[in-house]
Every structure is written in C-alpha cells, then in structure tokens.
Amino acid sequence: MFASLTIYTLLALNICATTAFPQYQSLAGLTREELDAVVPTLQYQPPQPPPGPLADDSTKLINDAAHPHLPLKPGDIRGPCPALNTLASHGYLPRNGIVTPVQIINAVQEALNLDNTFARFLVFSTFLVNGNPITNLMSLGGATPLTGPNPPKPATVGGLNTHNNCEGDTSMTRADAFFGNNHDFDESRFQHFVDFSNKYGAGKYNLTVATELRNFLHQDSLTRNPQFSLVSPRLFTAYGESVFPINFFIDGRQKDGQLDLTVARGFFQLMQLPPDFHRHDGSISNEGFLTVYNKYPIQPGGNAKGVNTYKVDHSSPTLFTPCQRYTDFVNKNIKALYPNPTGLLRKSINTNLQFLYEATLSDNCTQVFPYGRDY
C-alpha cells in the first residue's frame, strides 16, 4: 500500500546538515510541485519486530549448498562492511544489497553467531542513520533508488557508505573519506593488515596484531588526514572492527584465535566464505576490545586545525559510557537528521528507537523520547 503522507509530513523530514552528516540537508527550499511529485511514490512498510536469539547457537556448517558464493550481478551493491558484503554474496542477505533490519539480524546470527542484543544495537543504530524509515530498507553501500524513492536532492538516504557511523576513519581495509573512496576494498590498507600480522602474529591476525594495527591506523590518520575524526559512534565501531575478524572470521571449530591471512582476504576483498566454513561455537559480541584499547587508549576527538592537531572532544561519549552513547545518538544524531517528523515518518522512527533502546536494557540506561511516547 502507499502511504497517505501529507506535504507537512515530508517537510518534517527536514534533515539538517551537521559536521558528522554533511550530506543531509534541509528540504525547506523545495517547491510545492517538487513535494507533490514525491508524496505518491513513498511506499510505507511498517518496521518489523527484531528476532530473538537462536534456539541453537552451536557451531555448524555455513558455507553450504544452500548458500553458494555467486559473483555480483550488474547493479548489486556492496559497501564498507566485509561481513555484510560476504553474507549478501552467499545469499544470507538479499544479493542485491538492499536489506531490512530484521534480515540483517537473522543473517548475522545464523551465519556468524553474533549475540542477539549486540546485533540489535548495531543494526538499529545503523539503520536509523543510514536507512529509509518509510520503506524499511537500507543499502549495504551507497544511496540508491532501490531503497525506495527518496525526497528530491539534497536530501538522501545514504546507506552504509555514510561517513562516521558504521564507516569511518582508521578503517583496516578502506581509506579515510578525506582521500576519496571510503567504501571499496583498498589494497594498500590491507597490506598494513598483512605486514602487521607478519611482524606481530607470525603470519596470523590475532589480538596482539589488532592492538598494534589499531594504534598504527590512528597515528596514520592523525598525521595524514587533516579532517580526521574519531568520536562516537565511530569510536565504538573502530574498536569493534579490530576484534570482529578474530571473533567471526575464524572457523568455529578453531579455538586458537589466529586468523589466516588468506581467509581474511576472502572476507575483506573477495566477499567469500572459506570452504567448509563453520560459524563460531556459541554467540559472541565484542570480545577482546579491551585488550586492544588498554595498551594504546584513545580518547574521542579529531584533528582541529590540520594534521597532527588532535584535540580531545570531552563532549563525546567514550567506550565506557554506553548510556551517554545511547542518549547522545538519539538526542543529537537522530534529532539532527529528523528534527520534527510527523505522521508515518514519526511513527516509524519512534518504533525503531524503541527497538534500539531495548538493546541497551542491560546497561540500565534511561529511555529518551525525542518525539514523544506515542506511536
């Protein structure tokens, strides 16, 4: 069915430009004719409740006959997340790269054994920024009409390529956005991954390598990227991506925490599971990040006036203030994108915010209601 949105509902998607989200702009300057052309094309799909944990989270074969790796077809979309790219190329997610939140949660649990609470937090915090709340669709890469007709430019639904959320500076295999392409595999970045694994891990990627490489990547961006930024939520995902390959790219029958570099390249570049790959034995989330953080602790911040001018941002949540991270994300990031939504747009955002909050319950955070409590 098509949503019976009013002109005022579209105007409510008055997405303001911010430092972290420069591509989101106001729709207030659009003509009545432009808005009238958009209203009939927005197909509303209500948000779906997230699935619960797996009934059986033991290890099992994942690279099976039902999920063969297939080459990309013209128009298939991939982006900065190697895990989601790989799951799409094996059919655990739609192969065209256009996904719903529930599809992602199901896929990362079934194929990788990602902890349910952790999966819900990652997915809904990502979707609220990068997805289309009206159609309930998100791109694994850049903006595309496949997520539903978007409001006319300059507004956009940016997908996972959106800078400083899932994607961000200091990536292990993608370049900083300042240098251009922030979403495709970068061989020179991966060579750092290889070199550090050879130097510190005897040819394997492990927590020792992750620690040294994370420090190097921080210093590299600090000294080369004048617009370097590492604040919440990217600070959280940067440390998460350091340990993610150890937790999820190693066969579940292997217990030594040593990631083979050929397997790593398969995920990062080729978007392909190793032959006979089994998922992790038991659900897992962000294990190991404290090891990576403790040797070279990094405070949130960024270069203030060109390279080598790192300034700590004391207003940003740290890795150890989860409730501030949740509150700031809702009151600052989401409110900046959707300052005054109404109608179905408001209903969809509120529902997704509820799903996000439910993933923070173990942290005993106080729920915030930027658009009121009604749905």
UniProtKB/TrEMBL annotation:
Keyword hit for Amino-acid biosynthesis: no
One Pfam family in the UniProt entry: Peroxidase_2
Keyword annotations of the record: Heme, Iron, Metal-binding, Oxidoreductase, Peroxidase, Signal
Cofactor(s) it depends on: heme b
Annotated signal sequence range: 1-20
Keyword Heme on entry: yes
Residue ranges of every copy of the Heme haloperoxidase family profile domain listed in the record: 62-291
GO molecular function, one term: metal ion binding
Family statement drawn from the similarity comment of this UniProt entry: Belongs to the chloroperoxidase family.
Protein's name according to its UniProt entry: Heme haloperoxidase family profile domain-containing protein
Species: Galerina marginata (strain CBS 339.88)
Lineage: Eukaryota, Fungi, Dikarya, Basidiomycota, Agaricomycotina
